[in-house]
Amino acid sequence: MNLHTRVTAEFTQRFGSPPGAIVRAPGRVNLIGEHTDYNDGFVLPMAIDRAIWIALSPRPDRRVAAHSLDFNATAEFDLDRLEKQSGWIEYLKGVAWALQEAGHPLTGFNAVVAGDVPIGAGLSSSAAWELAAARAFAFTSGFEWNAAQMALLGQRAENKWVGVNCGIMDQMISAAGQADHALLIDCRSLATQSVPLPPGIAVVVLDTSTRRGLVDSAYNERRAQCEAVAQFFGVPALRDVTLDQLNEKRDQLDRVAYRRARHVISENDRTVQAAEAMKHGAAIELGQLMQLSHMSMRDDFEISNRELNIMVECAEHQSGCYGARMTGGGFGGCAVALVRQDTAEVFSASVAAEYEDATGLKPNIYICMATNGAEIVQSERA
Ligand code: GLA
Questions:
Q1: For 188-205, what is the mean pLDDT?
Q2: Are 365 and 206 in contact (CB under 8 A)?
Q3: Cα separation, 164 vs 261, whole angstroms
Q4: Is residue 11 within 6 Å of ligand 1 at its C-beta?
Q5: Is the distance from the beta carbon of residue 130 to the nearest atom of ligand 1 less than 6 Å?
Q6: Any long-range contacts for 308-311 (C-beta under 8 Å, 24+ apart)?
Q7: What is the phi-psi region of residue 373: left when phi exceeds 0, alpha when psi lies from -120 to 50, beta otherwise?
Q8: Long-range Cβ contact pairs of 239-245 (< 8 A, separation 24 or more)
Q9: How would you class 357 by CB atoms within 10 Å of its CB: exposed for 0-12, middle for 13-18, buried for 19 or more?
């Protein structure tokens, strides 16, 4: 039974009538453009066919009551008395908080929730939760869906309610993704451009089964290092510094700061080039840019780990693979590979076997489709 059917059936059983709407919001994989979002730069993610699904109906009072099929747990809260606690319901609550703070009057709902975005793998299950919640509130409360605004509110919920200091990429792609396309996002203006996946290409997500450890501190440290270099140049963000400018001042910067900035600035360039390559169906060039991106993250930004490097090496030498790189925040989680579609199954099996041989770990491998961002897939009002 797929998730759509499961949440619908469970809702009908629990609440005695079919749901008024079903919403879904996807996780994502980033093809290129890593740690560039909080530097006001460019990213090129796609929304994937793994998502959070919510079946819901509005309630007359100001309460939200949700049952999670994944956690087999029910939780409730009052829109007039939002208190921080812990657990999966905090995503719904945090988004309610951000929406109300932004002046949206909200209507509560009954809901059944389920998802298949692996948690903690770096595929943005949190952003999927946040955007599914925003979509659910937009439906019950009748405000207009504006993808960029909703992404910003989802990010605010993540930063201020959940307490994770992320950039805008994950929420933006979960809000605005387009089927069969990746999205070039300008993280300064939030302008987006959809770029088609090259024909005959499969995007394969390779989960190393390693999980990031002390990730918050490392992520925040990278952010601070980037901000310090931007400040040194007297500009708002590293987006505003070119490689030539950076190289001119190389001896005035400490070695680590220089390498961190070199990653971000070169990654921005690669991301824009990658979008161009995709527009021309140039899979070989796109793959090469992904490989360069991986090296830059491994050597300059230092956010890879041994298993991610092994996974990328296993992927790269398979025939039919154009390129591979670690993806997401780093220090564990997933790599992504660009593969000829007709070799994707064989590719996945070979990489899995080689990776397991080399590390003793069982990977999870997903051949992914690019899907739409947060959407109402069925509603009684439609
Ligand atoms: C995490 C964050 C994003 C982004 C990536 C790195 O996924 O949530 O905002 O910074 O790391 O590109």
A1: 97
A2: yes
A3: 23
A4: no
A5: no
A6: 308/208, 308/210, 308/332, 308/333, 308/335, 310/208, 310/355, 310/358, 310/359, 311/206, 311/208, 311/335, 311/351, 311/355, 311/363
A7: beta
A8: 239/36, 239/39, 239/40, 239/41, 239/188, 239/268, 240/40, 241/265, 243/269
A9: exposed
Q: For strand 181-186 and strand 109-115, is the pairing parallel, antiparallel, or unpaired?
A: unpaired
CA of 167 to the centre of ligand 1 (A): 6
The catalytic residue among 37, 40, 170, 207 is 170
> Is residue 329 in contact with ligand 1, taking CB distance under 6 Å?
yes
What's the chain look like in SS3? CCHHHHHHHHHHHHHCCCCCEEEEEEEEEECCCCCCHHHCCEECEEEEEEEEEEEEEECCCCEEEEEECCCCEEEEEECCECCCCCCCHHHHHHHHHHHHHCCCCCCCEEEEEEECCCCCCCCCHHHHHHHHHHHHHHHHHCCCCCHHHHHHHHHHHHHHHHCCCCCCHHHHHHHHCCCCEEEEEECCCCCEEEEECCCCEEEEEEECCCCCCCHHHHHHHHHHHHHHHHHHHCCCCHHHCCHHHHHHCHHHCCHHHHHHHHHHHHHHHHHHHHHHHHHCCCHHHHHHHHHHHHHHHHHHHCCCCHHHHHHHHHHHCCCCEEEEEECCCCCCCEEEEEEEHHHHHHHHHHHHHHHHHHHCCCCEEEEECECCCCEEEEECCC
Position in ligand 1 atom list of the atom nearest CA 124: 7
Structure tokens at 184: 């070039």
Task: Pull the structure tokens for residue 221.
Answer: 């440290």
Torsion region of 209: left, alpha or beta (phi above 0 gives left; psi -120 to 50 gives alpha): left
pTM of the model: 0.97
Interval 102-143: pLDDT, tens:
999 999 999 999 999 998 899 999 999 999 999 999 999 999
Share of the chain above pLDDT 70, in %: 98
Question: Mind listing the pLDDT tens digit for each residue in 273-313?
Answer: 999 999 999 999 999 999 999 999 999 999 999 999 999 99
- State residue 120's pLDDT score: 87
Which amino acid belongs to residue 154? G
